[in-house]
Design brief:
Blueprint: E1 10-11, E2 15-19, H1 25-33, H2 51-63, E3 67-74, E4 80-90, E5 95-103, H3 111-127, E6 132-138, H4 142-151, E7 154-164, E8 170-179, H5 183-195
Parallel strand pairs: 5-6
Antiparallel strand pairs: 1-2, 2-3, 3-4, 4-5, 6-8, 7-8
Helix pairs in contact: 3-5
Length: about 200
């Protein structure tokens, strides 16, 4: 395990990001049930009964050095409300992707998400000294594309027929990134969003 995948807990005013653990399975099931998120064909949210396998896969990727998965806890309620992770970690080239993010419907488009991104990006750029953080989403996931752009990320391009979706259809993947020289402006923007 390299230092990019060392377990870390990130604390904010609205959210706590804690290392994903097998014991989070029941809470992830409850979070995914809020909005029946597994029914969104363009995302990968665990369906009923799939939470343990979802966590197991994430932890295997962590142990292989390519991911750092988190459970997302709402500070106000104390509930686990979703999951996110650093993924496709390339510590030799100081790059990673921030993805596999999903939240219970009740906390989508709230300060919790903004602060979670602020904490994750801050840790990536300031502690891990990443030179770039990528975001990838399905071409048809317009809500996610809008949210990524709202963060201050810039679109790098579209990978055509990049991979297969859960339903077997070929997926076009939209790639965005924030680079280290942009981090100060993005941080100020996210902090301003939280004050509003």
């Amino acid at each position: 395990m390299n230092y990019w995948t060392q377990p870390v807990t990130l604390h904010g005013e609205h959210v706590i990001l804690e290392p994903l653990h097998a014991s989070h399975a029941p809470a992830l099931a409850a979070a995914a049930a809020d909005g029946e998120l597994w029914k969104l064909w363009y995302t990968m949210v665990p369906g009923p009964g799939d939470e343990s396998a979802y966590i197991d896969t994430a932890l295997k990727l962590r142990d292989a050095g390519s991911a750092q998965p988190f459970a997302v806890r709402d500070r106000a309620s104390g509930d686990i409300v979703g999951s996110t992770r650093y993924m496709n970690i390339d510590n030799a080239n100081q790059r990673l992707e921030l993805g596999s993010t999903w939240y219970a419907k009740r906390v989508q488009r709230t300060a919790l998400n903004t602060e979670a991104k602020l904490l994750l990006l801050g840790h990536a750029f300031e502690t891990l000294e990443a030179i770039a953080v990528e975001f990838r989403t399905h071409f048809m996931n317009h809500q996610s594309r809008t949210a990524i752009t709202r963060l201050g990320a810039k679109q790098d391009g579209i990978l055509r027929n990049h991979q297969r979706s859960q339903n077997g259809a070929l997926r076009d993947t939209v790639v965005f990134s924030i680079i280290a020289s942009e981090w100060a402006a993005v941080r100020a923007h996210l902090q301003h969003q939280l004050l509003r």
